[in-house]
Prior knowledge:
Blueprint: E1 4-8, H1 12-24, E2 28-32, H2 35-42, E3 49-52, H3 61-71, E4 77-81, H4 86-95, E5 99-102, H5 107-131, H6 133-146, H7 150-165, H8 170-185, E6 189-196, E7 201-203, E8 210-211, H9 215-218, E9 223-226, E10 236-244, E11 247-256, H10 261-306, H11 313-328, H12 332-343, H13 354-357, H14 365-371, H15 374-382, H16 389-396, H17 418-433, H18 444-453, H19 461-471
Parallel strand pairs: 1-2, 1-3, 3-4, 4-5
Antiparallel strand pairs: 6-7, 6-11, 7-8, 9-10, 10-11
Helix pairs in contact: 2-3, 5-10, 6-7, 7-8, 7-10, 8-10, 11-12, 11-17, 11-19, 12-16, 12-17, 15-16, 16-17, 17-18
Amino acid sequence: xxxxxxxxxxxxxxxxxxxxxxxxxxxxxxxxxxxxxxxxxxxxxxxxxxxxxxxxxxxxxxxxxxxxxxxxxxxxxxxxxxxxxxxxxxxxxxxxxxxxxxxxxxxxxxxxxxxxxxxxxxxxxxxxxxxxxxxxxxxxxxxxxxxxxxxxxxxxxxxxxxxxxxxxxxxxxxxxxxxxxxxxxxxxxxxxxxxxxxxxxxxxxxxxxxxxxxxxxxxxxxxxxxxxxxxxxxxxxxxxxxxxxxxxxxxxxxxxxxxxxxxxxxxxxxxxxxxxxxxxxxxxxxxxxxxxxxxxxxxxxxxxxxxxxxxxxxxxxxxxxxxxxxxxxxxxxxxxxxxxxxxxxxxxxxxxxxxxxxxxxxxxxxxxxxxxxxxxxxxxxxxxxxxxxxxxxxxxxxxxxxxxxxxxxxxxxxxxxxxxxxxxxxxxxxxxxxxxxxxxxxxxxxxxxxxxxxxxxxxxxxxxxxxxxxxxxx
Length: 474
Ligand SMILES: [Fe+2]
């Protein structure tokens, strides 16, 4: 298995310290003193991940990362940095590094990093397995062989697989399980009940009531009941457990006018098994996503700490954006995207040198041009992270103006992403009402007057009205 870790550093002290810590954790380690030697070793077999320094003779760490990624995009790379080189670490992350560690190196820190790397590896393999259509077809063929009507089955089972593969969240998945079951069985009475782990009861999400659960189901078995009330109208209930990693997660109940039979039960079982695989993947993915967010949030905090005048700015802008989201009745998905974009909107300022970012006086035109690059820098930091695609664009355009005279792209009116237009209002309002070293902040009334004046020029007029009416001053 992948248990070998490669450490690249020109400083033998650092190389050996990390190497020893890694061995303490039960992994094998190999070391290289520069990029050229590292590339040679990488040809010799699979590695779990690479730790690399940035400043090295012969080949820089960034160059090494670029070369490794060109060969194997999935090999995780962790950058070894000094105390004050966050910019370099971020630069490296743009090249595809997945994380960084800095001195003093602690065994716990390395253990967490390696655990994360392993989880990501499993996720990647799972994804590969799902997209491996050959594997899927073999699976389907196997199943089909056991069933009677071959042609019909190929279509329906492929449909199940395709539907499941294209899903994102858990809620989507439960909805799809119900839809596909209805289609497969021609039955309309199909319901899903999640299991409350606390007291082992099924929850009726419609009424909120708790229902008793058959112990036979809890052991992973299908429960079949004859629920006919009269002899004229027959009714049967079949309850399938949805199992994830050996645990019952919920139950799918199907009411039918005839016993389902082996054939139909087999199809539902296949659907639930495939869904469970997918759910495991979603859970893993969501864990990853949170991990990534916490890294980004700590970057935002570092930024706030660097500039005392704007500390808490991101937090206040996020709060204002969420009030706007509530006032506008945004969907949960949009709210979540806006929340992340607002908390990270100025993350690109990590790329602005201290003498400009922290300058106590008014900026020169040239310095301001530098500041203007932060939306692009921020978007570039997030760009390698596929789940952040929407947030990336919102951050890139948070300084556009409604009249097209903003930056970086000079987008106009509805060409500016909707959530960027909201973020722009929240950002500007907070900037206006905060004190700066060279000026005092405006009062809320003054800021509202300013927003009113800039309606249709800097701000979307409709959104500005909502902001004034429902958010400012409340
Ligand atoms: Fe900004």
